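Hey L., structure's done. Input below.
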Amino acid sequence: MSAAIAAALVLAVAACSGSSTAATGSSGGGNTSSCTNGSQASNVAALPGIQVCLLISATTNANHPDSVVYAGGHIWIGWQNITAKDGTDNKHSTIGEYTTAGKLVKSWTVGGGTASGTGCHTDGMRMDPATNTLWVMCNEDGSPRLFTINPSSTTATQITLPKTPHGGGFDDIQFVNGTAFIDASNPTLNSAGANVYPALYTVTLSGTTAKLTPVLNGGATVTTLNPPIGKTTAPLTDPDSMMIDPQTGDLVLDSQGDMQLLFIHNPGTAGQTVKELSVPRWMTRCGRPRRTGALSSRTTPPGSTRPARASGSPAPP
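Output:
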């Protein structure tokens, strides 16, 4: 499998994970449970040799999981808690830190309050490997808010973001060679249906204030990976999930509605180049119904002790 196809499959899972509660389910491979932690789920299809185990359950105060990060030997989950995607309901999300056995270590309330515009619909979430600080992005559709969490603290710190020129929100976060990147989701399109605004930024923090520098605009000219090889336009009307290509170190951006994956080499530098892979709609869109239940964790085949890897997260040691 090529690196481009592998990246497409991972981002397909990431893009389709938002806002649903995790499914309870059964895996393939027989009825005998081999779950080291948690219990065997039911009604979840899996390939032979793969066991699906219920590791962390949703609760009244932490439900509808989205991002999952594995860092520092712990699992971090962003629980959206049925919140408006632009934060206009002023409700909060919950960030939970768990052991690989599924035990809650600590949780943080992010956003929420009586004042207008205080809501948080958590979406993108990454651990800054340089500072061991968790970055949490809220409100992908508008009025975005950014928080950082020091694992030793009891409260999240809000970071002041500048006004978004594209009119929407911010979605995902990634760190590449010590630089933070965020993508500009739900952009306002012009009368021709085009995004004329920046779609990808670098972020630098000065205290609790963020400075954004655009590095890729809607309508950028890119090189195709699909034959015939040539130049094409990346509309970037729907920037969504990001990951790091494990083979090349490229930043991979999923423009969901455009059915494109963008492979960005040397992002944010003078040597930045962008290649585009057109992918089938099923790789970038969610067509399945939302299901209720608890978070499921996939174990690897018998004989392995590694916990499941969250999409876009580094593999456990």
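Residues 3-22+58-285 form a domain with the Neuraminidase fold (CATH 2.120.10). The first strand starts at residue 39 and ends at 40.

-- N.
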